[in-house]
Amino acid sequence: MNGKYLISGPVTPSLVASLTGELSNEVHSGGHSLFLGQVRADSIDGKVVIAIEYSAYESMVDAEAGRIINSVLREFPDANSIKIIHSSGLVRAGEISLLVLVSAGHRRHAVEACSKTVELIKEKLPVWKKEIYEDDSHTWK
User: Fold this and answer.
1) Does 3 have pLDDT greater than 90?
2) Is residue 1 over pLDDT 80?
3) Which is deepest, 27, 97, 104, 105, by most CB within 10 Å?
4) What residues have CB less than 8 Å from 36, skipping those under 6 apart?
5) Helices H, strands E: what count in the chain?
6) Residues 54-72: what's their mean pLDDT?
7) What is the pTM assigned to this prediction?
């Protein structure tokens, strides 16, 4: 992991399994909500996305992710914990680039807090992406 919230390359199935395996430690949680963001093979102007290369300002990602977590925990006091892992570097179509895992006392709060966390990440986290197409051209997003 780079910093507290970034991982080099895709979020692997073994990492997802490891994090969900730790949920039994959340003895005050009755619900967990997991969001996995996957790179799509979108067709844009007739070109297919084969990968996204993520660039991030690491220290700013750590600070902003911490602010996002604190904000969501204040808004959803039933939430007990929030984990965020975002990829940096190359992630191919079909691979996972974002993991958000929220544990809360109740199912509804876990789901709502997870959704809010994802929206804030998309809005505020200083991560940029370069879509790479099958013809080796690219577009920054």
Assistant:
1) no
2) no
3) 104
4) 11, 16, 96, 98, 99
5) 3, 8
6) 96
7) 0.95
Q: Strands (DSSP E) along 46-140, which ranges?
A: 47-56, 79-92, 96-104, 127-133, 138-140
CA triplet 41, 42, 43: central angle to 5 degrees? 120
Q: Which residue has the higher pLDDT, 26 or 31?
A: 31
Which tokens in the block code for residue 60?
């700013």
Q: Which residue has the tokens 């084969």?
A: 50
Give the pair of three-digit tokens for residue 65. 């992710």
Encoded tokens for 98 = 């974002």
Domain 6-140, CATH homologous superfamily name and number: Molybdopterin biosynthesis MoaE subunit (3.90.1170.40)
Provide the residue ranges of all domains of the chain, joining segments of one domain with +. Answer: 6-140
